[in-house]
Design goal:
Elements (H helix, E strand, L loop, with lengths): L27 E7 L6 H12 L3 H14 L1 E8 H17 L5 E6 L1
Antiparallel strand pairs: 1-2, 1-3
Length: 107
């Protein structure tokens, strides 16, 4: 065992550097609403505002995209957030007895 006097520092003259860790951004997922012939447009707009925090105008644009093309992108999120949003839409739709479907896919 080496004994150092109070004045000597075994690391004197050396520089400690933080280890650099390279991190990748998490994979992102698009949350999609699917068109159906039964869910009222106003309900869809409300869901988009409530779950995805869109303005009424943004929500209306997404709803119209869903209506016209059969699918619309609600947003892009990390996997955990996307899972939560899909679940929230499903719960709202079910509680109001609407068949609105929401899915997610890798971005």
């Amino acid at each position: 065992m080496a004994v150092h006097s109070p004045r000597s520092n075994p690391n004197e003259g050396s520089v400690l550097e933080a280890e650099r860790v390279s991190t990748k951004p998490p994979p992102m997922y698009r949350v999609l609403l699917l068109n159906d012939d039964y869910t009222p447009m106003d309900f869809v707009v409300g869901v988009l505002q409530q779950v995805f925090m869109l303005t009424r105008e943004q929500a209306t644009q997404v709803m119209l995209q869903v209506h016209r093309t059969g699918v619309g992108t609600c947003g892009v999120f990390t996997k955990e957030v996307a899972d939560t949003k899909v679940s929230q839409v499903a719960e709202l739709a079910e509680s109001h007895q609407h068949p609105l479907q929401c899915t997610m896919e890798p971005n």
